[in-house]
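[INFO] parsing input record for Ribosomal RNA small subunit methyltransferase A
[DEBUG] input buffer:
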Amino acid sequence: MDLHRLFSSERNLYKLVKKLLSEEGIKPKKKLSQTFLIDAEELEYLSSILRKTIDKQQCIVEIGAGIGNLTTYIASLNNDKIVVALEIDERFASVLRIIQEAFPNVDIVIGDALKIIPSMRGCNVVVGNLPYHITSSLLVAIAKSSFDLALVTVQKEVAERVVAKAGSKNYGKIAIFLQHLFEVTYVKTIPLYKFYPKPRVNSAIVLLKRKKAYDLMSQTLEHLIKCLFSFKRKTADKALKRCLKEFEASEKCRLQEIWRKRVYQLTVEELERVAIACMYANQKT
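[DEBUG] output buffer:
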């Protein structure tokens, strides 16, 4: 069976996805945010980015393989790479086994990506249409893992948040945390009608390229911004006083040059300097 040919046009893809779901008796579950990209051009675009961006012989992890539409494209256009497709819903196992038999570079794993991602070794690229209900949790798990590159489709609103700059309305904890660890790029918007079942909102492709590993400083920053953004409209000086008491940190963490700024105006670089100052000051106490 030439699966790539079957998935080669939007019309074929839409019909094929509906047919496979019907034959397997699968009704997409809203609680799992199950929706499938049915636009051939977008699937090829995602797969071609991987082909151009990563080296040969690398391992690609796909989150939420579902019916296997993206899996098929990735495996076909990246046949020199191993594709490990994760899917939590056992109902898709039989369909995914057909893809595994058709492509020798595909491995199927039925399990929870949130539990699997933190312990994965040997794969440094992750891709997928992230389930809406756990998007933020998955992004954090990817950030704390050993993945060097992530190419993910998320809600457009989430994509706008992760690329937001200091002082903007969308700027917050997830933007700071991801931009601390990655070069974050908003690649493009995907309209909601290119999915089946059709979601309520548009989606967007985001590319994350690793800048640094998650380490002790990253952990300090993560806890710091969690506290600071509970007081995002307060001045940095007042917010830091409250947060440093919580962390039992030294007053030396309070950098004078940022005192008068509001918390939401602090750049990633400024917050990194605060985290480093706290680490250094506490080592001295």
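[INFO] The mean pLDDT is 89.
[INFO] shutting down worker
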